[in-house]
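Fold this complex.
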Amino acid sequence: MSINLLFFGQLSTLVGSNNMTIENIVDTESLQLYLFEKFPEMENAKFVIALNNEVILKNTVINIGDTLAFLPPFSGG
Amino acid sequence: MIDPQFQERYHRQLILKGFGPEAQQKLTNANVLVIGAGGLGCPILQYLAAAGIGHIGIADEDIVSLSNLPRQILFTTADVGNRKAESAKNKLLQLNPYIKITVYAEYFKQEQCLEHFKNYDIIVDATDNFASRYLINDACVLMQKPLVLGAVSQFEGQVAVLNYQSSNNLRPINYRDIFPTPPQANEVQNCSEAGILGVLPGIIGTMQATEVIKLITGIGQPLIDQVLIYNALNHQILTIKLQPNLQIKTPETTEDFIQTNYEWLCNYNEQANLEIDSTKISELLFSNDVILIDIREKDETPKIHQWQHLSIPLSNLETSINELKFGKVLFICQSGTRSLQAALTMSNKYPNKTFLSIKGGINAIV
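Structure:
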């Protein structure tokens, strides 16, 4: 079992996919560091993280099987 | 105005179990302000008018352009060049003559929010830029108005019900709880840069109209303090529960609100974004929606021969620009200084249009 990542809007373009699975990441802070290293442009992007469909605002432990969604703001109308 | 055929017109809603005459009456008594009569605004307005919302406000200062038509379904090709808000009103009154429609053909800034929000029960954000989104959010927090937000990008959309005062004592969530500060102009692409699938704002706008109807009538579970994300390519929907962010601040007084410069916060005046190279002129003018304006005084030379253009000296620009029916305006002057000034001023004044300055002016071409 691994951790599921979902990317929306321009983040999916930046990462090259809507979704991804990873392993061996313990919390959201280390997940971000991992992603920033892999996709440096992500560090300058604005987004909020949701863990299992709930927005998280501080570093949170990730468990196997969790889904994390990365949501950027949209301006279009 | 009382609809003599009320029973017949709303028959299918009146017989709907869990809705009925009581809910229909609530719609008749409701006042809803829709800001933006574009891709999201059109379907929102259409369904709210059809459903029988008694009073609808439409705020949009823009005019209909040809590139709007694939998604702004209230307008026809014959409407190109007409004011969106007025045009929308005419269509909606044909659809439902027994509702009241108030038109605000002006860009909503602080003054307009403070003056008009108080007349409405629900505010609907159907705008297409961050300056407006943060402005409307902050106004809703200040004036305690529920906000039904929708936003789109390429193939995806977001819907949320924000600032809804629930009976519990918790502070309602607002847009800044999700995204505390506006992205800078170059951080997030808008529809005219990134493109948009025409049907997508139709889906998202219809979801917004659904939320408005649910809030007014009390049916179902509106997306209060949640954001729904929809992807048109695979029809996947994700609903995320939002959290209050203790770090954020919205203007707490009318004075603070008035003093906040939303365009500046969103960095719309960034000069680099307003300047384009003269080699792009021919390509840009290929679109019917684009016009080149020489803003030099009448006696300045050399004259421009290679492109179709208008001559409007900078001194007359303010008064003439209002009449122009183009989505994108290219300003040119002798060296590119005055044209940049014009692009900055006009972008500020008409944030929904694009104004560009030709870098280096005529000097760079000759």
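The CA atoms of residues 3 and 9 of chain B lie 9 Å apart.
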